[in-house]
Amino acid sequence: MTEIQRTLVIIKPDAVQRGLVGEVVHRFERKGLKLIGLKLFKLSDERAKELYQPHQGKFFYDYLIEFMTSSPIVAICLEGANAIDIVRIINGATKPEEAQPGSIRGDFSIDITHNVVHASDSVENAERELAILFEPNELNEYQRIDDEILYSPEL
Ligand code: CMP
Q1: Atom 12 in ligand 1: which residue has the minimum CA distance?
Q2: Ligand 1 centroid to 17 CA: how many Å?
Q3: 54-80 pLDDT, tens per residue?
Q4: Of all atoms in ligand 1, which is nearest to the CA of residue 12?
Q5: Dist. CA 110 → ligand 1 center (Å)
Q6: How many whole angstroms separate alpha carbon 78 and alpha carbon 38?
Q7: Domain coverage including residue 34
Q8: Residue 115: which residues within 8 A CB-CB, separation 6 or more?
């Protein structure tokens, strides 16, 4: 079933530091995913903890928060057909040894925490995470000029 979804991507501090922002955004844009929101900022400790609340108590949690708040991130809201699963495939597996070449993590990371990107893993989490990082007026509704040729008409 095709469903138009929105998802959150974070370009993590390691990727911003390494000058990979354009490379990462390019991969989503060329797929046909629509940029709905995009901003660069330093994540506060409070927001990082809210975002990663499901991982609270895990052995890697404290370092994850420290890393994610260490320097600026880029938060992106993307929209498209089945965007949540598609973005996770483009990002690649979390474990570096499982991330396939051709995926963002497969091509650019070798560490499980410094792993370039984060993406929401479900519709519920996408809604939750987007609400933490974006104000409603930072999300833009618009037609892309190629919308009509990217998608077949509903059958
Ligand atoms: P992300 O997609 O941002 O979601 C949670 C993050 O926790 C994940 O990417 C990894 O960076 C990190 N993470 C998950 N599992 C581990 C682990 N076993 N050891 C260290 N970090 C982890």
Answers
A1: 113
A2: 19
A3: 999 999 999 999 999 999 999 999 999
A4: 3
A5: 13
A6: 9
A7: 8-42+72-150
A8: 12, 14, 94, 96, 105, 109
